[in-house]
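Lab notebook, design round three. We kept the backbone fixed and only want residue identities now. Task for the bench partner: fill in a sequence for the structure below.
Input C-alpha cells:
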C-alpha cells in the first residue's frame, strides 16, 4: 500500500538516470480506479507522461524512473472521466455515501497490482493527517511506523461521492449513490456542505430527489440553495414539493428572486403558492397544505375508496382524516380513514363522519392551532375561510416540524 502523500514530490528520472522533474499529481481513470498518467513539474512547467512509460515506481526509495521511450507531453488539465488526486480529491470535502456524512480527505491510499497502480480508498483519520504533515520531513519507513500507530479511518473508493464531479460519468455515479439515501440523510449532508458544494450536489440530483432532501433541511439551507440555483432549475425543484413547503422557502427569498421563480413555475403550481404567500407565516393559512384529498358528501364509501386509489402516492401518508365538502365546496365534515376500511361500499360516507367538525380559519394564530391538536388529540385539522369554504389541511407533522424549527 502506498499513499499519495508519499508520492507527491518524488523525483523523476529518465532512462539515463538524469533527473527530469518531480511528481506533482496522479491522474486516475475514474471509471476503473486506475492511475493512467503522472503529472510532473518540470523546471516550473507542468508536463504529463502515461503510466505505461513508468519503468520503476518506488516511493520507499524516493524514486520514479521512466522507460527509454517515455515522451513528456504538455499538460492539458485532464480528459473526460478522469480526476487528478491532488487537485480534485486531496483536502476536499467528499461524501461518505456509506456513513452518510461529509468528511475531508487527508490522504489517499493506492495499491500496486502487477504493473498497475490502483485507487483503493481515501483517508480521513489522524494517520492521514500526520502522514501529510511529515511527508518528506522524516524517512518513509519511520513515517509509516508512526502512522500505523495512529487512528486509521479510510473510506473505500466505491463509497466516495465527489462533491465537485469532473465528468458526466462521475455525476451519474454520485447521483445513483445519493438517490438511494433517505431524504433526511441527504439533508444532513447538504447542511454540512458550503454554498458552492451544495449547488453541485443539488445539480447532480433529479428534481424529485432534490426536493425531498431540501424539504428536510434547515430553512436557511433551503433558501440558500434555491437562491443560488438557476431560476428554471429552482422552479422545477419547487414544483416537486408540496405547495406549503415551496411557499415557506420562497417566503425567505428576496422579493425580486421570489417573483422570478414564481414566473418560471407552471401556472397552476405558482397560483397555489401565491395564495399561500398571502397568509401570515404564524397563522393556520401559512401552515396549511393545499395539496390534499377531499371527498364529496354525496359519495358512498365505495366511491370514496375508488377515488382514493387515484390519489398521488405522496399524499397517502397524510390521509388519516378525509375532509368532506358539499357541492359548493364548503366543509361538511371529517371522516377518519380507518372507519372506512371494513365499511360496506354502498353506505353513505356521511354515516362515518365525526359528530363534531373541528376546523380553524386561515387567520387562526399558530398557538391556537397547537392547542386544538393537543386538546383533541388530532392527526389532522381542516382550514376554512370566513365563508366556510375548505382551503387546506394541517397535519400533525406540519405542526411538529414548525415547533422543532422554533417558530
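Proposed sequence:
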Amino acid at each position: 500500500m502506498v499513499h499519495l502523500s508519499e508520492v507527491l514530490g518524488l523525483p523523476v528520472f529518465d532512462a539515463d538516470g538524469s533527473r527530469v522533474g518531480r511528481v506533482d499529481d496522479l491522474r486516475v481513470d475514474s471509471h476503473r480506479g486506475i492511475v493512467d498518467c503522472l503529472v510532473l513539474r518540470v523546471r516550473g512547467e507542468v508536463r504529463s507522461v502515461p503510466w505505461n512509460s513508468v519503468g520503476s515506481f518506488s516511493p520507499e526509495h524516493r524514486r520514479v524512473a521512466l522507460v527509454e521511450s517515455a515522451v513528456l507531453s504538455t499538460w492539458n488539465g485532464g480528459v473526460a472521466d478522469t480526476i487528478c488526486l491532488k487537485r480534485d480529491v486531496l483536502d476536499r470535502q467528499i461524501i461518505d455515501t456509506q456513513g452518510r456524512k461529509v468528511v475531508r480527505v487527508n490522504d489517499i491510499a493506492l495499491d500496486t497490482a502487477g504493473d498497475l497502480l490502483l485507487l483503493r480508498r481515501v483517508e480521513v483519520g489522524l494517520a492521514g493527517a500526520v502522514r501529510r504533515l511529515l511527508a518528506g520531513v522524516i524517512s518513509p519507513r519511520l513515517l509509516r511506523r508512526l502512522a500505523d500507530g495512529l487512528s486509521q479511518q479510510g473510506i473505500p473508493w466505491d463509497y466516495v461521492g465527489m462533491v465537485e464531479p469532473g465528468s458526466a460519468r462521475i455525476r451519474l455515479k454520485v447521483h445513483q449513490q445519493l438517490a438511494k439515501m433517505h431524504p433526511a440523510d441527504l439533508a444532513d449532508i447538504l447542511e454540512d456542505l458550503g454554498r458552492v458544494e451544495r449547488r453541485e450536489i443539488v445539480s447532480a440530483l433529479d428534481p424529485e430527489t432534490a426536493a425531498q432532501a431540501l424539504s428536510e433541511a434547515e430553512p436557511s439551507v433551503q433558501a440558500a440553495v434555491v437562491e443560488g440555483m438557476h431560476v428554471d432549475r429552482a422552479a422545477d425543484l419547487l414544483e416537486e414539493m408540496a405547495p406549503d413547503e415551496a411557499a415557506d422557502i420562497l417566503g425567505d427569498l428576496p422579493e425580486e428572486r421570489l417573483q422570478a421563480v414564481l414566473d418560471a413555475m407552471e401556472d397552476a403550481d405558482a397560483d397555489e403558492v401565491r395564495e399561500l404567500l398571502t397568509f401570515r407565516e404564524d397563522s393556520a393559512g401559512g401552515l396549511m397544505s393545499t395539496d390534499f384529498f377531499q371527498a364529496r358528501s354525496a359519495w358512498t364509501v365505495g366511491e370514496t375508496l375508488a377515488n382514493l386509489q387515484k390519489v398521488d402516492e405522496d399524499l397517502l401518508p397524510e390521509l388519516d382524516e378525509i375532509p368532506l365538502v358539499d357541492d359548493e365546496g364548503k366543509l361538511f365534515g371529517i371522516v377518519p380513514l380507518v372507519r372506512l376500511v371494513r365499511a360496506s361500499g354502498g353506505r353513505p360516507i356521511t354515516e362515518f363522519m365525526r359528530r363534531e367538525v373541528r376546523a380553524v380559519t386561515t387567520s387562526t394564530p399558530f398557538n391556537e392551532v397547537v392547542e386544538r391538536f393537543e386538546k383533541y388529540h388530532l392527526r389532522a385539522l381542516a382550514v376554512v375561510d370566513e365563508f366556510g369554504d375548505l382551503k387546506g389541511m394541517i397535519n400533525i407533522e406540519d405542526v411538529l416540524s414548525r415547533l422543532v424549527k422554533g417558530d
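Keep this in mind before ordering anything: Residues 243 and 292 are 10 Å apart (CA to CA).
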